Target: Outer membrane protein beta-barrel domain-containing protein
Amino acid sequence: MKKLLLFAAALAVAAPATAQHFELIGRAGASFSQYRGSGTEATSFINYSSYAGAERGYTNNPYGRRLGAGFALGGRVQRVGRRQGLLAFDLGYDWARSRTAITTLYYYDGAANTAYAATGSAHLRAQVLTAFLGLGRRFQVGPLALDVLVGPELAGQLGAHETGHGTYNNGTAWTTDTDRGSHFPLDGRLRADATAWYGRVGVNASYSHGFANAQAGLVGGPVREAYARTLRLGVAYRLH
Model:
């Protein structure tokens, strides 16, 4: 009898542990990024010039409020508790692009600066590594499961590059291809993340709200603010 009671007690202690498990998850999909703040614009203009026989230019303000399309990849380790509580750590890569519509081009020929009506758009492309620590819960609805997570995200920008194209002066083509460097290497963000599962396959959505000012390193003039916002939509697969 004593041995039976000891066995029952050991089983009671071990049962919660066996109800817990870890999952390995891979994800991939599209990303849609923009900047928000006093230093961002939905439309801007191009500064263009001719030098040594070559034309070149750049967007006056590349921090666009319009959504630009990119892609996102990531991997996640997730602990599922006995009461369906979740603790997740996600490492990811974002190829993020914001977009700015171009309405005017200022052309400098070495003597005068002439304004032309222009069309087209410019994109600011950033390569970003992300680390997300999420807390949440799994909700079960029949054969479907919904994982909901929220928590801090640390984003490290590897670099930024501006590209754009369009026309000016009734059909003349313009292009930009400018290295924008990395004004802020790290951005502390708040992220919300949800994945709907059917078996091992899931549909994932997340939103990251940045708090680091991308224009903090600029010198001179009034303080301008530009904060990254990223929406990700994609698919996920549970490896384990």
